[in-house]
Design brief:
Length: about 140
């Protein structure tokens, strides 16, 4: 996370108490955008954020309720696929011990709110299944 480290300094300073960590990152194919997920206090729950790599500008896009997710960019660099769960409506996220069910795959277009994300795949008949996304070389699949 060289870009992230350069823009924010010490990653441990992403929060006052030093408990926020960058857990994964994914660059658009042209290298102009970076998606990265952050975790609070070691939780498996993540928030995905975005940054322009040339200016280190943080984008307003924020994706919540993310856990065990892919971050797969489309070849046109306009968005990415990711996994999320329904809003939990609870305050113990990160310490709960319930089984995660009904993970869904979404497409997020850069510059739009998460509420506009497109549901791509879900398995309501198999609530414990998880998914991911890959893009074919031609970008059509």
């Amino acid at each position: 996370a060289v870009v992230l480290t350069q823009s924010t300094g010490d990653p441990n300073k992403l929060s006052e108490d030093g408990t926020v960590a960058v857990s994964s990152k994914s660059f658009s194919e042209d290298g102009q955008l970076m998606a990265y997920s952050i975790s609070v206090s070691g939780s498996d729950w993540k928030t995905i954020k975005f940054m322009r790599t040339d200016t280190k500008e943080e984008l307003v896009d924020t994706l919540n309720h993310v856990k065990f997710s892919c971050m797969t960019w489309t070849h046109d660099h306009k968005g990415l696929f990711y996994n999320r769960y329904q809003e939990a409506g609870r305050t113990d996220l990160g310490t709960e011990t319930d089984t995660n069910i009904n993970q869904k795959l979404y497409y997020h277009r850069i510059g739009t709110p998460q509420s506009d994300d497109i549901l791509v795949l879900e398995f309501p008949e198999e609530p414990t299944w998880m998914s991911g996304a890959g893009i074919s070389d031609c970008g059509q699949y």
